Structure formats: structure tokens, C-alpha cells
Amino acid sequence: MPTSRLLSTPLGRMAVTANAxxxxxxxxxxxxxxxxxxxxxxxxxxxxxxxxxxAARELAEYAARRRRTFTVPVCLDGLSAFRQxxxxxxxxVPYGRTVTYGALxxxxxxxxxxxxxxQALARNPVPILVxxxxxxxxxxxxxxxxxxxxxxRLLAMEGAAVxxxxxxx
Length: 169
Hints:
The chain has six helices and five strands; from the N terminus they run E-E-E-H-H-H-E-H-H-E-H. It is α+β, with helices and mostly antiparallel strands and about 170 residues long. It has two domains: about 5-65; about 80-160, Winged helix-like DNA-binding domain superfamily/Winged helix DNA-binding domain (Arc Repressor Mutant, subunit A, Orthogonal Bundle), CATH 1.10.10.10. The strands form two sheets. A three-stranded antiparallel sheet has the order 1-2-3, sandwiched between helices. A two-stranded parallel sheet has the order 4-5. Helix 4 crosses helix 5. The model has no long low-confidence stretch (mean pLDDT about 90).
């Protein structure tokens, strides 16, 4: 059974959910409805509990600018092979760096699939741990499930170049 942890960070309230194999969900600040749903998940499995606690600690350290890499495992069971390839490729983008959707598509072995990469990242269940905020459009910031203000904040916090916004972003 999955176990969840709520945490307060300099970025805002967040939540993590883990099973015995790894983190299965990260809820970002501002996603209050999702935070409420996660808060109701009680501890049940000691292994899941330990991973949820570890993930909460690592995310808090990241938000406090004391962590650049994550060691907690993520569990991406149920994702398509393409979404798993995209997740593996984005995890290789270092802290403080960005990559375009097109370049990430090439890294994931699907040159020309920038739009599909964007759709895969839009459904990323573990943002920040799988750092989709580091993926930008060729001509601007692109999207982010946590909102563009949070994406800008995460990139700035990491010292990454924040692309100029297009009209409407």
C-alpha cells in the first residue's frame, strides 16, 4: 500500500506518495485539491513509509537549496515505454541546465517527437524528482504542470537561464 507525506518547503506545501519500490507521486505547491487527497493516505507498509520519508527529506533539502541530485528511487510502473524513456532522458539533465523538448526527444530515441515529449512530461507523476521543469520550448519557456511561475522559480533557484516568455506565457 502506498504511503504519503505532506511537507512544507520554501517553495510551498508539497506531498509525496511512495510504495515499497519508490516514489509514485509528487504534488507540487498550489495543487491544493491534490494535497488534500494525498493527506488522507495513512502509513501502511514500512518500506513505503521509509521511502516517502526519504523523498520528503530530499525534496525539502532541494527546496532549501541544499540538494542538487536525488537518490530516492522513483517507481514509474505503468508508464509506456516511451514515457519511461523520456523520464530516463530528463533525469540526465543536470541541476541548473535546461534542454529543449526537441533535444529531449532525440535523447529519448525519438527525434522529431518534441510534441509527444511535451505530452509525456505534462503527465509526469513525479515532477522535480523527474525534473520536467528543466525542459523548455525552443522559443520560450514552454509549459509546466505546477504553473509557469513555479517553473521560473525552480529554474532561477537552480541558476538556469530562464528563457524569455512568449506572449501568453
